User: Fold these one by one.
Assistant:
Number 1:
Amino acid sequence: MSAIHLQHLVKKFGDFTALKTMDLAIADGEFMALLGPSGCGKSTTMNMIAGMEEPTGGKILFGERDMAGVPMGRRGVGFVFQNYAIFTHMTVRQNLAYGPKMRGAAKPEIDRRVGAIAEMLQLTSLLGRKADRLSVNILQRVAIGRSAIMEPAIFLLDEPLSNVDAAFRAIMRTELKQLQRQFRQTMVYVTHDQLEAMTMADRIAVMDHGVLQQVGSPLEVYNNPANVFVARFIGAPGMNLLRGRPAESDRGLVIDLGPLGVTPPLPAAITAAVRSAQGDVLYGFRPEQATLVEGGQGLSLPVTFVERIGARTIVHLGQGETAVKAVFDNDVGLAIGQTAVVAPAVQSVRVFDAATGLALRAG
Amino acid sequence: MEAVQAKPTLRDEGAKLGFRLTLPAQILVLFIAVFPLLMQLYISLTDWSPLSGTGWWNAWSMWNNFANYTDLAVDARFWSALKRTAIVMIVCVPVEFLLGLALATLFADEFPGKRIFYSILLMPMMVVPAVAGYMFFMLFQSGGPVNDILSSISSFPVTIAWLSDPTLALIAVMVADIWQWTPLMFLILLAGLVGVPEDQIKAATLLGANSWQRFVTIVLPKMKTIIIIALAIRVIENFKIFDTLYIMTGGGPGVATETISVYIYKLTTQDLIWGYVAAIALAILIVLSIAAVFAMKRMARAREVPA
């Protein structure tokens, strides 16, 4: 009933195409994150779902119902704004009561619903407070409560954590996820922060330049990026990509990386796809999947920079075309200028077509 | 003198130096602001007039035991002028406010030709009030354009003597004031309207509020401070209404359009009883000050809830 279907959705602002033919099915009760850099069309998509923008082409269905021409006040959509858009001239109670009141609910009915929602969001003691001097996590709860009181089938959240400092963000991520479990609504969450998307979403829709790049569970998107953009965008730092050519060796199919030598054999699952590739390919592996090898087989590169961030150490190796990052759980005794040999874990290697940017994989 | 003196702190020193450095300016301000007021108070207690043949500083010899103030209390012409001023204000300010608000609401959205209309709308405000007075003086002549328009609408000749009829003259004067000052109201209110956070309006829409509900529950409360400012400006300005009115009617016919300012002007230039004028001016200043304090208090209260 509250599933969302986007069918061939297009949005143009004059000559600028903000969204190029988007197809996406969001299941009932699903937490879907729209993830991408600024200007990728994620907010435009969200605004069209909410009815703030009219699509240039395509359809938006809520369940079976076409939303074309349905004004935003009648879509039954809860929307949490980036800055929460709390009515600062009202009390918390008035904010929560706003929706039912505007729809003409009776006073006892409003009081009952406000009481219930305040209870659920632990806002009961704050009901009498003016909304202009509340801390962000309370504002967020008021914003959610104000929408939730309308019992919307769909909840849209537009980068609700982007104004919050890092420590608070961690708390609020958990809080949001718990709230979603309580409400069991379909949630669409727009963010440019992959950590938020990865930790909260059931599935992530990665977008760039108005094009949907990949839809999948957080781990699927992380482990099997569909293309070079997703590979680079997901993960911190993103996937290492090195240009090379497939070559046969006595150990199986490898990639000839030119001056960097030859890679270890590729995982069996992708050899067929790589073998049939035309031209150059990009050899990709996650920085977290690299290990230091002493004198063994691997990529031999000079250390250019070492970032030590407590729990992890990020080692930058090589430059330009051959730049590689490796992430280690512990500090490693490497200094700038030294040469290190890193080897990617074989099963984690992904290969992309250098021309199209698409992943080369079976099927 | 004192055996034990607290050592002056750096802060005290700074304050002292600051006081000394700003002293000349402070004296100047004091002279500009306070001196005329004291002079007025002094003269208002005497029968002094420029015809007395002595300087104003000698006015003490004409001390009249508050006679100016007791006269004022029973001066029917003063009270009727005050009442008329109040009527003009009670009609003009709300009309200007409502028209200004309606126009501001209109201009908050985009429409073709907006910039041109915007410029046209602001023009009356830039017309010198005396010139506006002449314009309306001519418009409201019995053979003037206003009657011409009424004639063509009603299709029989209209020759209303607008400025000679006591009631119609007052209406004509109010029309001129509304024409000239609605743009100011519009400008201030538009600034306030544009400042209303768009997200909150969208949020209200998503929660099911219709446009009227949004206007009443979100837009107006957010504009409270600016509305009070706009009203205060116009109330104070309108109370002093003079140039346009004086050129249109001279306060006439009879005293039918005589407001406080016109009355004071006549007393000053025709009757030359300056002691009495000073008493009236002072009385009005006190009334306006009370109104201003009241408005500012309201504003401070409105600002406790920032937009």
Number 2:
Amino acid sequence: MFFRGFTAVTMEEMTQTEVSDNGVYEVGFLLVPDITEDGLAEVFGNLKTSILDKGAIAVSEEFPKHMPLAYTMEKTINNKIERFNNGYFGWIKFELEGSKVAAVDAMLRLRIDVIRHLLISTVRENTIASKRAPSVRRRKDESGKEIPGAPEMTKEEIDREIEALVDTKTVETAA
Amino acid sequence: MKQDFFSSNNIKHVDYKDIEVLKKFLGPTAKIMSHRRTGLSSGNQRKVALAVKRARFMGLIPYIQK
């Protein structure tokens, strides 16, 4: 019997609450540039399944993109130091029990097609600010009054407006 | 930069993959700008520093630019 605050908690109850603490993690990886465009989907799928096999639930992902590296990286593959100036960078966000994360890290470390990987703890929502919708800026004139922007319209209203414009144009051309 | 970029744009998380945002806080030699020059809050300055170091490790931005 343990006391948490003022309530008595049994050992059984404590273990039950501790089991459900899944965290959201993200693994970013650099794949070797030798992979062909066709083989890339296979390698990425293979990597994803090996993470999901550990009990992870995929949250979001980005398919690897070819990119030049900011500096030359080295990796020993089959007792030979290989140098890379470009690679395929992608990431997978997943939910997993904290105790199983080390296994994912170890698995990635052993893969020869991954130059480098980075496993971090993150949040479920999108963290890339530049991909979010830009915030609406309210412009003000010299006297400090707000300048009204474009009126807010629904998709249907916009469609109706465009159709009306197209109709008037066709009438004009016909005349 | 006088105001905190993240607070004014309502950004809660600093992502290491977001290179366009991170580059705003790097000098011409790719060093992290000082707290005084960025105008960030202490917490956000630490978040930027961590994100820059992660991005450097993954080869997204250089450690040093000549």
